[in-house]
Amino acid sequence: MKMPTEFDGTQDAINTHLAPMAVGGLVGFRTLLYKEVLRFWKVSFQTVAAPVLTAILYLLIFGHVLENRVKVYDQISYTAFLVPGLVMMSVLQNAFANSSSSLIQSKITGNLVFIMLPPLSHWEMFGAYVVASIVRGLAVGLGVLLVTAWFANLHFANIAWILVFAVLGAAILGTLGLIAGIWAEKFDQLAAFQNFLIMPATFLSGVFYSIHSLPAFWQAVSHANPFFYMIDGFRYGFFGVSDVAPGFSLAVVGTAFVVLATVALQLLKSGYKLRH
């Protein structure tokens, strides 16, 4: 028997649930948002549980090997340092996967027409895809945090910083996934985008190390990576210490979101590779 995946097996169930949403204002936004959340939730074993398991494996491997060999901040164990990085990495990767996989699936199966025909504004489409990506990213991140917290003595220095960077980071990757989904015309193009841009940027953003342990050249390269500021600012919310000032990280992350959102909105407004 074929197992359901993120790319199939959900459309019929989604269609049967859309009718009750067609009431009140912002109908298009609410209906598309409902469809996008339901799309990943119907296969949550793959879209939520599997990334949590992956993060646990990273923690067990790197934490076991490097716990007594790497010291990052005073009084903070390497495992404790690693947990927020893994949480944020999971948030970012899954936010990107949500919007990008939804769009490319709709293109290839041909049901994108059912999204383009209704009088949806580009703002509504953008909002629905990005908010759904935030929901999935935060759901996975919370799952990773709840499971990995058993392995480390975590602190919560400032919950506001944690929430701000988690939401903004998920919004940025959801927007980037939207752009990738619009640009890509087949799965291998989307896979190339993820494998050659998203994966290197997340793994080289300080998830597993502090950039102060790197040579000067690689520190400069890390400072050019927006993903570094998302993870560093998020980690600051736990420990109250970071590689750069959290206010500066927030400014970089906020600017990145504005730039990417502007690009995505323009692509949606013009119908680039969406209307044939």
UniProtKB/TrEMBL annotation:
Signal peptide: none annotated. The keyword Translocase does not apply. It holds the Pfam family ABC2_membrane. PROSITE patterns: ABC_TM2. It is found in: Cell inner membrane; Membrane. It is a multi-pass membrane protein. One of its GO terms (molecular function) is ABC-type transporter activity. Residues 42-271 form the ABC transmembrane type-2 domain. Keywords: Cell membrane, Membrane, Transmembrane, Transmembrane helix, Transport. The chain crosses the membrane at residues 14-33, 45-66, 78-97, 126-152, 158-184, 196-218, 248-268. Belongs to the ABC-2 integral membrane protein family. This is Transport permease protein. It comes from Cupriavidus basilensis. The lineage of its organism: Bacteria, Pseudomonadati, Pseudomonadota, Betaproteobacteria, Burkholderiales.
